[in-house]
Amino acid sequence: MTLEELRSLVRDFVEEREWTPFHTPKNLAMTLSVEAAEVLEHFLWLTPEESAALPADKREAVAHELADVLLVLTRLADRLDVDLAQAFRDKMVLNRAKYPVEKARGKALKYTEL
Amino acid sequence: MTLEELRSLVRDFVEEREWTPFHTPKNLAMTLSVEAAEVLEHFLWLTPEESAALPADKREAVAHELADVLLVLTRLADRLDVDLAQAFRDKMVLNRAKYPVEKARGKALKYTEL
Amino acid sequence: MTLEELRSLVRDFVEEREWTPFHTPKNLAMTLSVEAAEVLEHFLWLTPEESAALPADKREAVAHELADVLLVLTRLADRLDVDLAQAFRDKMVLNRAKYPVEKARGKALKYTEL
Amino acid sequence: MTLEELRSLVRDFVEEREWTPFHTPKNLAMTLSVEAAEVLEHFLWLTPEESAALPADKREAVAHELADVLLVLTRLADRLDVDLAQAFRDKMVLNRAKYPVEKARGKALKYTEL
């Protein structure tokens, strides 16, 4: 599945339901944070090891939450006319410059600094 | 770009830098929330209308944050052995059942309920 | 109610239940984000005007979520040996220097820059 | 410092700067999530043990972020006419009923379920 196909699927789903008026970028950005927190909630009290070995039912519940994040992310990009694939490629160029392999190797760098 | 290609690109980037030991699902779930909040921050004091008409420089800054969310989301799914494309398809089946067009049309349904 | 009384009430509640081993600052910081998102969720699709005129039942539900944020915030500060009242006073000194009345008046400054 | 004093201090700070028009509950709820994520960011790559033994400079940086959360929480409650002390007391009654000591002891209960 391509990012472009994703965009069409989400757009069709939303437009059939006439939800576009509610989908201001501001509202979608809020939704993205709410969905990310629903992912986070599944990991709250787990040890790092437990988080890497989820039982099947919990893993499926998390998979559904990840799908929600992907849906909202795709929709927000669409509403902003942002091409997610291009934005990703652009960012990776910046990331490679910012974190050269020799310098970054084995260090707990913050993705938030990417 | 497919979700599968994305996964490979992110995995190569991370493995070259030997960051996998830090990438427990728990840590990545935290990072996802932090990245979503960085998107949100751009929309804090905007009116809904302003949020739909960002100036070019701000739009590009948001695009980079969206790329970060996509990167972390892709990585988290990879670490959990979740196939994002399949998870998305599964969730859309649930969404279509939960929000039938006739019932959902024009109502501000919560994505968080999807 | 003082911040010091709050701290004691939360601590007693937690210690009676022997939850302290789970309350690493990392876990509590995660919980704080999850609780903040539960507040946010109530405001997702509201207009600014609607958000300022909540019906009574929704207002009470939000009040309970705000109490959760206060509880977790208090607990996290306690676990870090941070005196919240002192931290607040210190931060307000910085805020007053950063946002002089003459310069900041009527401008949509970001709290995130406070 | 009481919660009532906090409310007055925050209100005076905001009104001097004429920021009230920007402080819709919706905008403040967004700010609360952004501030909570700034706390979270400090803990991203730490082990649970490291998170409980922050170096002094990092501990002070976190204290400032906690003060921001307290400030925004106080302001949001004020704008909603919610008495935080009363909301806290009400919630603790519910918490005590929901998590009886005998049943809850030593179990990693989710604060999000409180």
From TrEMBL, chains A, B, C, D:
Signal peptide: none annotated. It comes from the Bacteria. One of its GO terms (biological process) is nucleoside triphosphate catabolic process. GO terms for molecular function: nucleoside triphosphate diphosphatase activity. InterPro entries: dCTP_Pyrophosphatase, DCTPP. Keywords: Hydrolase. PANTHER family: DCTP PYROPHOSPHATASE 1 (PTHR46523:SF1). This is MazG nucleotide pyrophosphohydrolase. It comes from Oryzomicrobium terrae. The lineage of its organism: Bacteria, Pseudomonadati, Pseudomonadota, Betaproteobacteria, Rhodocyclales.
